[in-house]
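Archive entry. Fields below.
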Amino acid sequence: MSDKPNKLIENGKRLDGRNLDELRPIKMEVGVLKRADGSCYMELGGNKAIAAVYGPREVHPRHLQEATQVIIRYRYDMASFSVKERKRPGPDRRSIEISKVSREALAPVILKEYFPRSVIDIFVEILQADAGTRTVGINASSVALADAGIPMRGIVSSCAVGKVDGEIVLDLTGQEDNYGDADMPIAMTQDGKITLLQMDGNLTKEEFARAIELAKKGCKQIYEVQRSALISKYEGVSNV
Amino acid sequence: MSKINENFAIPGDFLGTSEEFLSTNGTYKDKGNIYAACTGIVKIDTKDRSISVVPQTGMPPIPKVGDIVVGRVSDIKSSVVLVDIARIKGQEDREIATLKQGAIHISNIKDAYVKELGYEFGFQDIVRAKVIDDKTLRLSTDNKSLGVIKAICSRCRVGLKRKDDKLECPKCGRIETRKIADDYGSGSI
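PREDICTED_STRUCTURE:
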């Protein structure tokens, strides 16, 4: 990784020129994969991720199926070329944990009782990583679920907040994550119900409260991007 | 069509309250409020005060009454044939989201007396049928275009060729009977 810079914040601006409460530039595209039932590509600064949704479909192995509701499987995977040092491909301890928390971040919004004895498979592939990949994965897969036509209570939006040089900042970069004091990814529905909250590092009670407020602001901006991505893809189409 | 207001919604959009509207397809109710559950155009029917979202995305296929389905015979009982449904016609590129096993009762096979099911269907036959009940997935083949579209010889497992209104095995010459669809063996589903 790059050497530690002397200061991560100078004159209220961060190393990449952003304000403390500013997200990195976002790009989002819906329906990028033809073979998947729903898909979404998302860029957040240096992060590039693609999400694909299959199903609801038959559960294999059979014993996993549930008689009253659909089960959800989420696979987070980083491409071997997504980081500076080649990552050994395949699931590891970290990606298994991220898959688990991401699945639990999305599960509450899916209307699961509509499709008993079935499974919804979500695959997230990180093509390029620069801190906050799990939030990108959640954002993209939540739009991919909507693209697949799966009935949902709402859209999940996610972003990270953290503490860098003693300041609470939104959407940390790789450098800020490595040399900062805290990193806290948060996912929430558009009405502000939190479905994911993890924290690495230390925050005081007051800092934590400020961080949550900042994350809410960030998620709101991401929600608007998700919304316009879905609308621009489907508004023109007429299936009536 | 009655008077209808149009605008676009994505999941979670607030549409109205349950005092105002009857929540129907593509919506859900939470604490008396109605929200969109899928991505599409909001339709308000002012006649029966119902609100729905007409999805513009692809939707998970669910068999509805009147749908034509294609499947394979998985079991033949004394008065019912069980069919593993593979696809709904018109939505061939996506797997069925829920129940996949349908049943054809002996009374719904054709408009004639059926003495025994073995004369109408064979194990592993490919069948085209119409859904007549989407709760329990009861199917019917009572139509010229419905019935077996591909069958195999019960003795040597070779695909049967059509010979008038019966089927003949090209290998052993065995003659079998089926409730065949009018385009049997054409390969189209």
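CURATOR_NOTE: The CA atoms of residues 59 and 119 of chain A lie 6 Å apart.
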